[in-house]
Amino acid sequence: MDRYDLIVIGAGPAGEKGAAQAAYFGKRVALVEREPHPGGAGINTGTVPSKTLRETALYFSGLGQRGLYGVETKLRLERVRAFAHRLRELSGYDLEPFKPLFGENLFTRESGAVAAQFHDPQAIEPYSSDLVAAPRRIVLGKKSGVDSIRIKAQELGLDLSEDDERRLLAAVKERGAEKRGLVTDEEFLELARG
Ligand SMILES: Cc1cc2nc3c(=O)[nH]c(=O)nc-3n(C[C@H](O)[C@H](O)[C@H](O)COP(=O)(O)OP(=O)(O)OC[C@H]3O[C@@H](n4cnc5c(N)ncnc54)[C@H](O)[C@@H]3O)c2cc1C
After folding, report:
1. Whole-prediction pTM value?
2. Euclidean distance between CA atoms 154 and 160, whole angstroms
3. In this predicted model, what pLDDT tens digit does every residue of 82-115 receive, in sequence order?
4. Least enclosed by CB within 10 Å: which of 92, 125, 142, 153?
5. Cα–Cα dist 150/172, whole Å
6. What is the CB < 6 Å shell around ligand 1?
7. Which atom of ligand 1 is nearest to the CA of 39?
8. How many CB atoms lie within 10 A of CB 91?
9. How far apart are CA 87 and CA 85, in angstroms?
10. Which atom of ligand 1 lies nearest, measured to the CA of 32?
């Protein structure tokens, strides 16, 4: 059994500091955290995110043209996702798929205003996906509608009649419900071939 001089529960700012200080004095320390990432409210939910949100809001609300507190930030937002992706690779740190700005699934839809996303994006996007160079995507599943079938067919170069679309929509919904997950492009093509 492992033995420790100190076990710290919670890797927020206090826990991290306490654990590091004890280790500094040569103690054997275990630091226990229930969340997937250390940092507590300081890093993950409170201090840093709230200040980041505030500065981002200032930037987007027009100060972007004049700089932030007179300092030109020269933010290149179209690079922010690629940067986050690289950081994730290097650090092995996973981000939630719906994390603001960086999340993989931010502009991906299975249902809801699917058609609007492509034809009238400003009707549903709080900020344009172009701003952060994120692709607009649809995924297929049991909640898909006929617009998704049309968009996916076009994307994959299929020419479908209205009857085909209806038949395929029913087949996609059935497949999604059966597998309790999304219908892949390969499965969609297979269903389209009948
Ligand atoms: C919105 C907001 C804005 C803030 N802004 C500022 C600011 O500008 N400047 C400033 O100085 N402070 C700010 N704070 C306060 C600052 O974030 C907190 O004072 C600081 O995070 C407290 O650190 P802590 O380690 O005591 O607790 P926490 O940060 O809450 O960390 C506790 C950790 O313990 C873990 N934990 C809890 N129970 C268990 C368990 N049973 N097992 C395992 N792990 C457990 C939690 O998951 C968490 O990671 C802000 C807080 C909020 C909410």
Report:
1. 0.62
2. 9
3. 999 998 899 887 888 888 888 888 899 888 888 7
4. 92
5. 12
6. 9-15, 32-35, 40-42, 46-47, 50-51
7. 49
8. 8
9. 5
10. 43
pLDDT in tens, 42-98: 999 999 989 988 887 777 776 556 666 677 777 788 998 999 999 889 988 788 888
